[in-house]
Design goal:
Strand content: under 5%
CATH superfamily of one domain: P-loop containing nucleotide triphosphate hydrolases
Number of helices: 32
Distance between the termini: 42 Å
Length: 638
């Protein structure tokens, strides 16, 4: 069901309840609203309608509670504030009545279109909110408040770049507009411009050092930069202060646990994940985060609690997805592979309902890229870009063993590990545009419009923008973004002396590992079905064959299985390729202490093992369609 259909269904159920109330069938109306609440618990107007039903039944305290729930979700509901004022006055609660009256007075001073658009935004109705707002801007002219609201709508819709431009323009006109600056920082954060987001947060904190919303934003930017230590202390400070709700406690515990996990402090991370679950027992992402440690074992009581939570009506879709993946891992550890597979499969199926990835679109863009990035195109641009050899790009498919390779190389005295950096993908988006379904470069031919000076400047920009991730002062650093295999052409144009390492893993093992791994938000959306994963693997191989043909010898291919079988030999081969001397510390990679955010963070802190080579075979009865879809890829030599 798409957003418009879900909204229509929701509005129909609300109308049904309202009609029942007007017919004085109040009990039936409340029953109808409970059904609506199961599917749309954060729909503010259902709580407003509940309050009206409860008032009709003479249940004043319950009505006040429903109204408070409504305005907590959506503070731009004039009727709710009006009812709250009246109910509080009837009960002699003059302080609460005055608060409600002030909120109502503020809304009455605003243009009705602004109030309506804000209300729609709060309920997630982005398209009608934008329609109302744009009509208002057309008739009433631009104001910074209305433009900020438009930016918030675009930001909520995932258009961080558009929101960023709008908010930057607002701040040019009104540099002291705190709320707009906060939104600007959020847009930068959503656009993965973490250093700039942190700078904006620091500016806001100068005037309000204890502002909790800004401190949380600052912490999120630190996480994005891989600066985990400040987050641990910051979240502890916030937890020591007054938290608004159990949900806030759970979120702070979760963020702190993620930072602890990244720093290798696994025991403390588990304690904070458990504390998050104490605050909110159904907090799906906390259950999943425990599972995603890979080394944590759930007991029977945990599994019982997760099963009950996953089956609960009214649970948010993402909580259900998180719980299904967590149960998949928990039951896998108990060797109940049939039940484990069922949860992995259902988790992926539910997640795929909101995915826009399409294999045919990705295939079309890959063909377009191959037609553009030819040997002739590179020959004409030989010598372009910056001459720095500092970057090392470790790429390939997710779950191919790239975190292991990064950890091995980052254990060398001359190499610094950073993270999965987003700069290269962002540059491609700026130059070529992005396909809305797959996020791939819409017009790769635009890369060939770069001049030599522009290519060099873009290479220098990469070195400058990634400096924030480099803290050790080592001459080489790693960008471990797997998706950069799409962008080897741009890397060659702007950073021709950079090292590129393609990490390759046996297809069945790699593809199944992607299927059972839940990635964050919109990352790696090809992983939600076996057919899409197989298609993506084939696209990846095809593109890597193309890069080898047009840039022979440019990319060093490393097979994960070779590293497992002969760690020293594979390590020497990589270091020789980079012109670096062998160091025994690379073989003791599991002793290297550094922040790691990927799902393999705990695994690469242990000596190398062979478990990952065979895990997929336990699920062989359910992987026939994957084997069929991969076809001749299974016999292709690496």
């Amino acid at each position: 069901m798409n957003g418009s259909e879900a909204r229509d269904e929701r509005e129909a159920l609300l109308r049904e309840a309202r009609t029942l109330r007007e017919q004085r069938r109040v009990t039936e109306a409340l029953t109808s609203l409970e059904r609506l609440r199961e599917d749309h618990p954060r729909f503010s107007r259902l709580h407003q309608e509940r309050a009206q039903c409860l008032i009709a039944l003479g249940e004043g305290p319950a009505a006040i509670a429903a109204l408070r729930e409504a305005v907590a979700l959506n503070p731009t509901l004039p009727a709710c504030w009006d009812m709250l004022e009246q109910l509080h006055r009837l009960r002699g609660e003059e302080g609460d009545a005055s608060v409600a009256a002030r909120n109502l007075a503020v809304l009455k001073q605003l243009p009705p279109a602004i109030v309506a658009a804000q209300s729609l935004l709060a309920d997630g109705d982005l398209e009608p909110a934008e329609e109302i707002l744009r009509a208002h801007l057309h008739t009433a002219g631009e104001s910074v408040g209305a433009l900020r609201l438009l930016a918030r709508i675009r930001l909520e819709g995932g258009a961080a770049d558009e929101a960023e431009v709008l908010l930057a323009a607002i701040l040019e006109r009104a540099p002291d507009y705190r709320e707009a600056r906060f939104d600007y920082a959020m847009a930068l954060l959503q656009g993965q411009k973490h250093r700039a987001a942190r700078q904006q947060a620091e500016r806001l904190l100068k005037d309000a050092p204890d502002a909790r919303d800004v401190l949380k934003l600052y912490g999120a930017a630190c996480l994005g930069l891989g600066d985990f230590e400040p987050v641990i202390d910051l979240d502890a400070r916030l937890l020591a202060g007054p938290c608004e709700s159990a949900e806030e406690v759970a979120d702070l515990r979760l963020w702190r646990a993620n930072a602890l996990k990244a720093m290798g402090r696994g025991v403390e991370a588990v304690a904070d994940y458990r504390a998050a679950l104490s605050a909110c027992p159904d907090h799906g992402v906390a259950w999943f985060s425990l599972a995603n440690l890979k080394t944590h074992a759930f007991d029977d009581n945990d599994i019982t609690r997760m099963r009950a939570a996953e089956a609960r009506p009214g649970l948010q879709d993402m909580d259900r997805v998180y719980l299904r993946f967590a149960l998949g891992k928990a039951l896998e550890d108990q060797a109940d592979y049939a039940a484990s597979w069922g949860f992995y499969a259902r988790g992926n199926a539910l997640r795929r309902t909101s995915s826009r990835y399409r294999t045919d679109v990705a295939e079309r863009f890959a063909e377009r890229l191959k037609q553009t990035m030819t040997a002739e195109a590179f020959a004409k641009r030989a010598g372009w870009g910056t001459d720095s050899s500092a970057p090392i790009f470790v790429l390939g498919l997710p779950r191919s063993g790239s975190t292991l390779i990064e950890q091995i190389l980052a254990s060398h005295a001359q190499v610094e590990g950073t993270h999965e950096l987003t700069e290269i993908g962002r540059y491609v988006g700026e130059l070529c545009g992005r396909d809305p379904d797959c996020g791939l470069p819409e017009n790769p031919a635009a890369l060939l419009d770069l001049t030599a000076a522009q290519a060099r400047a873009l290479g220098e920009r990469f070195l400058g923008e990634t400096r924030a991730y480099r803290r050790l002062g080592r001459p080489f650093f790693i960008d471990k973004m797997p998706n950069n295999f799409w962008h080897i052409g741009l890397i060659q144009l702007i950073l021709p002396r950079a090292t590129i390492v393609d990490v390759r893993r046996e297809p069945m093992a790699c593809c199944f590992s992607n299927f059972k791994q839940l990635f964050g938000t919109t990352n790696q959306e090809f992983t939600y079905s076996l057919e899409d994963i197989a298609g993506y693997y084939r696209i990846y191989l095809d593109l890597m064959r193309h890069w080898e043909a047009v840039l022979p010898g440019r990319v060093l291919r490393v097979r994960y299985e070779d590293v497992v079988d002969d760690l020293e030999g594979a390590t020497r081969r990589m270091l020789d390729h980079m012109g670096l001397p062998f160091e025994p510390s690379c073989l003791r990679f599991h002793e290297t202490r550094r922040g790691i955010r990927t799902p393999s963070s705990e695994q690469v802190r242990q000596p190398i093992g062979r478990d990952g080579l065979e895990q997929w075979k336990r699920y062989a009865p359910w992987l026939a369609s994957l084997r069929t879809a991969l076809g001749d890829v299974l016999t292709e030599t690496a």
